[in-house]
Amino acid sequence: MAASTAFSLIATDLDGTLLRGDDTLSDRSLAALARVAQAGARHLVVTGRPAPRVRPLLDDLGGTGLAVCGQGAQVYDAGADRLLWSVTLDRELAETALGKIEAEVGELYAAVDQDGVDGLTLIEPGYLMPHPTLPAVRVERRGDLWDRPISKVLLRHPHLSDDALAAAARSVVGSLATVTMSGPGTVELQPCGVTKATGLALAAERLGLGPERTIAFGDMPNDIPMFDWAAHGVAMANAHPELKAVADEVTTSNEDDGVAVVLERLFGGPAVLGRQRTDRTAQYAPKTLSIEP
Q1: Which residues constitute the domain of residue 135?
Q2: Which Pfam families has this protein been placed in (predicted)?
Q3: Is 158 domain-assigned?
């Protein structure tokens, strides 16, 4: 099989992976993704960001298709600006989990991503957004975080490292929620059993594709389930050691266009004008979760 046709689905994380540190897409990355499209392959953004925080980036990518958001809790149709599938985190379970973690490590600062295409990110006093460019609404007290259905809770500790906080959270949360670490200052609680692989599998199924022709790119431990699902996992040079340990290869950093480096090797040549080929499909066993027709 020629390298340029080895993969039909390219799944990329955003922060620390496809995006540079200033939240921009390089011309090189955009050109590489254009060559992917010209080859008839599909590109899926698979991110921890909720759908409303992904829309502007999808506009930059010219994306009108699907995106996996909220750590896999949302499958978003950019063209229709609607969620095709979403799972919310029970707010009482979230409060209980947060209380258990604070009993273990002391006071935390919390934020939530509300569910829906118009959902807001709410932050309680003391919480600092890990990405200052992303919009957030500050509430007066923690109880205000639970006013609407939520997709996840974001946690920060004044002293503990992200690794230590994530480990402590996993030790006490049990089946109340899934604990993930998705970036510097970003430890999160999401619905139990939901990961990036959950949303990626659903979106791929809708596209008629499966794991055997998928290459995935990421930089943090929350990308491990996606690597487990995909045929080939590529970690960035700036990736967390846990992800590098399970990756099939390591590329250059996000600042050095590591995604583009691999895509250029696989798909080569500049994009050319003309009609794109029909997307390839792959058959695989149905998943237990379903997506609306």
Answers
A1: 91-190
A2: Hydrolase_3
A3: yes
